[in-house]
Design brief:
With 104 residues, the protein is α+β, with helices and mostly antiparallel strands. The protein is 32% helix and 29% strand.
């Protein structure tokens, strides 16, 4: 059994991160933020995944291994300015689920 058998794909964890965002957003964003996101998400919304950056070290008490974690950004992309609603750190390890969200 390879390590890949124990890991969710990037697409799977990105989808899960977005589901977590949608579920927790009403409790963590202002009503105006929710209205704005819902109004523009179809045309201007973005979900981007990448390797976790160094800033996560101040929020976690463990070493973040880039092959085991994904950083997911959720926001709106306007012409003059992006609005980031959440930065999500999520584990790819099927046996060790972990999600941490930093809200706007």
């Amino acid at each position: 059994m390879t390590q890949e058998d124990h890991l969710w794909t990037i697409e799977e964890v990105t989808n899960h991160a977005y589901e977590v965002f949608l579920e927790l957003a009403p409790d963590n964003l202002s009503e105006q933020d929710i209205i704005e996101f819902n109004k523009y998400r179809e045309d201007l919304g973005f979900i981007e995944e990448s390797e976790p950056d160094e800033s996560w070290h101040e929020f976690t008490e463990f070493e973040i291994e880039p092959e085991l974690y994904v950083q997911v950004l959720v926001g709106l992309e306007f012409d003059n300015q992006d609005v980031l609603f959440a930065r999500i750190l999520i584990s790819r390890d099927k046996a060790a689920p972990f999600v941490h969200v930093l809200w706007k």
